Amino acid sequence: MTTTLIRGGRLIDPSQDIDRVGHLLLRDDRIVGIDPGTTVADNVIDATGMIVCPGLIDIHVALREPGNEEDETTATGTAAALAGGFTSIACFPDTNPSIDNRGAAEFVFLLAARAKNCNVFPLGAATKRNAGEELAEIGQLVEGGAVALTDGKRPIANAEIMWRVLEYARMFNCPIFNSPQVPELVKDGVMHEGYYSMLLGLPGIPAAAESIMVSRDIALAARTEGRLHLMCVSTTVSVDLIRRARERGVQVSCDVTPHHLALTDAELQSFESCFKVDPPLRPKDHIQSLIEGLKDGTIDIISSDHQPYAIEKKDRELDLVPFGIVGLETLLPICIQTLVEPGHLSWPQLISKLTTGPAALLGIQKGTLKAGADADVTIIDPDIEWQIDPTKFKSRSRNTPFGGRKVKGRAKTVFVSGEIRHAAE
Amino acid sequence: MLQAEAVKLRGIWLDFANVTGSSFTESHWPVRWRMTTDSDSPETQWTRHDLLGLQDLSAAEITMILDQAAEFKAMAARGESKISALNGTVVANLFFEPSTRTRTSFSLAAKRLSADTIDFTASASSLSKGETFVDTARNIEAMGVDLVVVRHQTSGAPQLLAKSLKASVINAGDGMHEHPTQALLDLFTIREHRGTLEGLTVTLVGDILHSRVARSNIWGLKKLGARVIVCGPSTLIPPHIEKLGVEVSNSLDEVLSETDCINLLRIQFERQRSAYFPSLREYAHFFGMNGDRIRKAKKDVLILAPGPINRGVELTPEVADGRHSVILDQVENGLLVRMAVLYLLNERRQQTAGGAR
């Protein structure tokens, strides 16, 4: 039996509405409680001036294993997660082969156990091979541990398939994650369609490509009473549609990424491939709507949408490079810079979008400091100033738009099941 | 002949490059007696390492290129069409997209300046073996290339190259982004016929959305003081284009009477699907330049076309071969502005000893 006392930190636990200075006691792999009345423990960690919160959770990241180990592996991806303050992540099924059967889902747990970094939960494929044509073995995926179903970054384009997936997965109370983009409007687009796409002569992706599928999916969720989650929403109309659907009682949720809050489509003027993301970076007015959605709770989750790609895949012409950037190791400081520092969100609000929001959606017993919960805890140094240096990433890939950016705040110490798995140097 | 024959005397650069040429028949006379002092303002001296587009150029820089081209034209008229300014310089033409006219024009421009040239086309390349575009360019640069002329189907590809190469990069057309030398030759042709761009109304007709020629023309024309109208089917005019200071029209007939120069952009079949307009016949009906429309236009209207033209679509043979057409002037002037660009960039390289950007 080992006990650890984290002393004098600012304890923020949105699951219990706690935000105060206090002590947190862990015993073995469990949380004993807050202010336990003892100052004696095997290990004592001084957290004065630090934020102590439930381990952060990212609901969709790409680990690329099996099939694309040149981009990332479970070992490197989970190390990146820890460095970013995450103790649990859910990984995309768009690997090769895809996670579209029970054995593949169980393999994810095996890889995570071998890596022994953070917890990993598989997102199962919604359709066989993520091809969007036939339902995957959804029930057995759930039995194998899949916490949600998705075709990853590939939109479920066929409305009938989306209808059936939502309806079928309802039996297992399992949410469907979709990337809402109408493919025929995306076509060969590489960026948001607007002033800058006109200026740069780059093929544009209209905002309507997203809002049309958001609207369709909401209608199908209402019809099926299934659980719908829309990943990486990025437009004013999307947020508005989701807000109104939630008011009507439709089971729909959504998340946003830090890069869609921190960057605009103007960045593409550099023609740098690290600004090519899906959905595309939008102009400021859309960002304002995303912030409003975060403030009023329409958006209750923030995800990095971590998309690692080896340098040789991103160092090419803009139309040939894949969409996406790595994000696990930069999410926290970028969120602090774009949401907390300007006063859009309080610290407890930000933490809730990285703990209680994700845990509730995935239906996992995580994201809390309640007595008896898993001892997954993140200690954040909110004031440390540093510069993002991609060469120091734990991730195998370096495709970030934030290299060189001066930021504030990072994960200092990360506990998973009561063990220190990451300590910032 | 060596390039180092420009010497500095008491802060004054004298360029003997062509005076001391061994063969007077090949290199007769100084390109220009250059007496630019160190204190010259940037406006009278070319200071760029690359030519990636017209967006970033000042009116003075554009004028400098046009003036240099005019000088070459005057020399050619005197029979001095070949000069030795780029003797010993290697120019690589990297064409990752099919092109006949621009590639030939650049190649000849380089030869007129006595440069050595390497012609590279994607079909004959190792790209088909999986080599990346940047690696291909680096390999070619390693052969001692000083100036790289690049044509690529992806917008921004020349910017990507400029970041990776020490050689000067000249954009010969990138995706739907910019085609600076085409716009320069259009400007040159209009200026030659009208003396100035200031106050003229120039209408760009056709596929504005997919056209790099349109974008470069807009920058150049606006900077030199012209009024610009973009005219075409609503599906081929991108939203927000009015923010570049142009006027938008969907009716050629309405703007004809106020237009001094009409530039008929090519309908680019290779970039298009039937989603943009119903048929070529319908396009020609509304936007084709034909005899009837010429008769409704200003008496001295100039007809330009960047080519290759689709006769009967953008314009009828009657117009293409008629007295308003300056299409063949454009081809000739293209050679001269490309010579001017190669010449100015090469001069800059010598001043900075191959120099940094």
Would you give an account of this structure?
The complex is a heterodimer of chains A (425) and B (357). With 425 residues, chain A is α/β, with parallel strands linked by helices. Chain A has two domains: 3-51 and 374-423, Urease, subunit C, domain 1; 55-362, TIM Barrel (Alpha-Beta Barrel). Chain A is 29% helix and 24% strand. Chain A has helices at 74-83, 102-115, 138-143, 159-169, 183-186, 195-200, 208-224, 236-247, 258-262, 284-296, 311-314, 331-340, 347-352, 356-362; strands spanning 3-13, 18-27, 30-34, 43-46, 51-54, 56-61, 86-91, 119-125, 148-150, 176-178, 191-192, 204-205, 228-230, 252-256, 301-302, 377-387, 406-416, 419-423. In chain A, the strands form three sheets. In chain A, strands 1, 2, 3, 4, 5, 16, 17 and 18 form an eight-stranded mixed sheet that branches. In chain A, strands 6-7-8-9-10-13-14-15 form an eight-stranded parallel sheet. In chain A, strands 11-12 form a two-stranded parallel ribbon. In chain A, strand 17 (406-416) and strand 18 form a beta hairpin. In chain A, helix 1 crosses helix 2 (102-115), helix 4 (159-169) packs across helix 7 and helix 7 (208-224) packs parallel to helix 8. The two termini of chain A are 28 Å apart. Chain B has 357 residues and is of the alpha/beta class. Chain B folds into two domains: 49-178 and 334-351, 3-Layer(aba) Sandwich (Rossmann fold); 180-331, Rossmann fold, CATH 3.40.50.1370. Chain B is built from eleven helices and eleven strands. In chain B, strands 9-8-7-10-11 form a five-stranded parallel sheet. In chain B, strands 4-3-5-6 form a four-stranded parallel sheet, with helices on both faces. In chain B, strand 7 (201-205), helix 6 and strand 8 form a beta-alpha-beta unit. In chain B, helix 1 (59-77) crosses helix 5 (180-194) and helix 5 (180-194) crosses helix 6. The longest helix of chain B is centred in the C-terminal third of the chain and has 25 residues, at 327-351. Chain B is globular, with a radius of gyration of 21 Å. The relative contact order of chain B is 0.14. The model of chain B is unreliable at 1-40 (pLDDT under 50). At the A-B interface, helix 6 of A face helix 4 of B.
